[in-house]
Structure formats: structure tokens, C-alpha cells
């Protein structure tokens, strides 16, 4: 368990945040400038907050009231930056050994062979890091952090500098890191898609304050977190792979509702997280018929939230979970949408991107 309580004032901004991060991957989620990186740098010891207390397991890293401030090199933390920040003149093997060099001899370490296998970098060991792709560099950076025997891994928007193809490459490795390595992760992101796929706990931030804490499904499906017009709004559903069909579709069971997605390379029985963007859902008051869309989720309207612009977020309680639907004010008025009404959410199969589908970790 990581406990964080810090307060720090800038000329035009004050951070005041308290939260606990349980085992797993805790995502600090919010817009740029909300205070996420300030928190991570305070945990790392790269920033001294005006006041605060930070405890990792039973080890006090910072307590301003008692005058305790461990320097960064004594905190036993692994830090993964936006760029790999590898030594370009060293090979991948030497970069990995550099991380291991900082591990205490008395501290249990991850097995180097296991880390190399986990990250799929065995074929890169003798290559110099300067010639690696962005995704390969990030995998090596993850390995270097793991081999330093950290109590906690900090990841500050580690996918922000990568294109979509490289993000798709790296996301499964963070899933494996979350599920297979007994080291808590504090992960910074403003990408709802990343957070939906990876986080076991989400700490949502706005203007230096924590506005919500909970599971990815609870936080990201809360219409109060994002304004009604925000394109980041969406839902996180849990589903189980039921079958792979010859026409290239994978069939899922989501609380008794069938979902069809483009083929997902996961075995039958595997539990998945599926993020569905609110703007990719069509809302109908009547049960739809004669549509090309294969996914129809029946439900009851439980919230209608109007923003400053033309958008409205409708929260639909379905057997699969809460589904957010983004429509216009005009559509909401024409449909006479109100709390308690029955409605149907319609999702095109091809609307769900591969990066919005991940394993649950359970």
C-alpha cells in the first residue's frame, strides 16, 4: 500500500491531494496540468512539497512534520519516463545491468531471465539502445526499472511519445507487468483508453484536487468526471470470450448480453475489459430492428447530464454494466430522454479499437 498526502503551492496552482494506492496498477488520471506529474515527482523525491507525508508499505519516504525526506536513491523506486532515457552507447544487456547495479544485495530481486522473457527482449540484448524503436526502448526501460529491485514503479505517461502502433505493442507488456510482477505501479496518464485497459484503481484529478477514486469501470463510467461534450467519455465493460467465429468475429458474454468484436486473440473463457467510447453509441427508445450493428444493449436511463455545448451524456444501466452515450441536446429532446426510461444502446462491432480491449488480470 502506498499512502500519499501532499500539499504544494505554485504561483497559479495549488496541489492538495490525499489517496491510498493498493497493490496493482493505480492510475493518476486527468487533464494536463491537473497535478499528476507533481505527485509522481514528490513520491520519487524529485520534488519537495510544501507539506506532506508519503509512506510506501511501512517505510516513510517523506514526512515534513517530522523532518523526514529520503533522497531519491534511497527510496528504492523504479521510474519509467515518457522516453526510454537509455544510455545510447550501451547495449540492451548493459542497460539492464545498470538497473540491477543499484539493487541492494540484501533485497530480493526479479530474475533477469524472467524479466527478459516477460518483456520479449531476448533478441535485443546485444544491440545498442540507440538503434532501437520507440517501443523497444520502452520495453528495455521497463526491464531496467524492474531489475533495480524497486518497492514501487512510477510511470509518467510512458506511452505519450509513441504512435498508435507502438502503443499497441507496449500495452500488453504493462498488462503482464500489472499481473505477473509483485510490484505496485503508479501510472500517470490523461488517456481514458490507456487507463480503462490497465488500471486496477483510478485516482481522477482536476485542478490539483482528487475528484473520484475507484475501479476503472466506476470512475470512467461516471458522467460527472467529464463534461458532456468530452470525447474522452466512455464505459468500461467486463466480458468473457465465448467463441471465435469463422467470419472473423469474436463473441463475448457481458452480463448475459452478447457482444461481437473483430477477432480478439484471447482464448475462450478469458475475461476482458472492453472500453466503448460514448460517441460511438447510438441511443434508441425502441428495440432496434433491421440494423447492421450487431451489439444492442437494453437498459434503463439512470442519469442525464447536459454540458455547456450541444452535447448530453446519458448513463444507461444495462446487464453488461453502465453504458455512457453521447448525443446532442436536440436528440435528447426529440427522444424525450429522462431518468427511469427504458432505452437501448447500439454499438457497431468495428467501432471498438484493439487498444480498447485488454485482459482483466483476474
From TrEMBL:
Top class in the EC scheme: hydrolase
Q: Which UniProt keywords apply?
A: ATP-binding, Cell inner membrane, Cell membrane, Hydrolase, Membrane, Molybdenum, Nucleotide-binding, Translocase, Transport
> What InterPro entries is this protein classified in?
AAA+_ATPase (IPR003593), ABC_transporter-like_ATP-bd (IPR003439), ABC_transporter-like_CS (IPR017871), Mo/tungstate-bd_C_term_dom (IPR008995), ModC_ABC_ATP-bd (IPR011868), Molybdenum_import_ModC (IPR050334), Mop_domain (IPR004606), P-loop_NTPase (IPR027417)
Does the record bear Translocase in its keywords?
A: yes
Write the signal peptide boundaries.
none
Domain Mop: where? 290-356
| This protein's GO CC annotations | membrane
Q: Which PANTHER family match?
A: ABC TRANSPORTER I FAMILY MEMBER 10
Q: Which SUPFAM superfamilies match?
A: MOP-like (SSF50331), P-loop containing nucleoside triphosphate hydrolases (SSF52540)
Give the EC number(s) under which this enzyme is classified. 3.6.3.25
- Write out the GO MF terms: ABC-type transporter activity; ATP binding; ATP hydrolysis activity; molybdate ion transmembrane transporter activity
What the entry lists under Gene3D superfamilies is as follows:
2.40.50.100, P-loop containing nucleotide triphosphate hydrolases
Q: What is this protein called?
A: Sulfate/thiosulfate import ATP-binding protein CysA
Q: What residue stretches are annotated with the ABC transporter domain?
A: 1-232
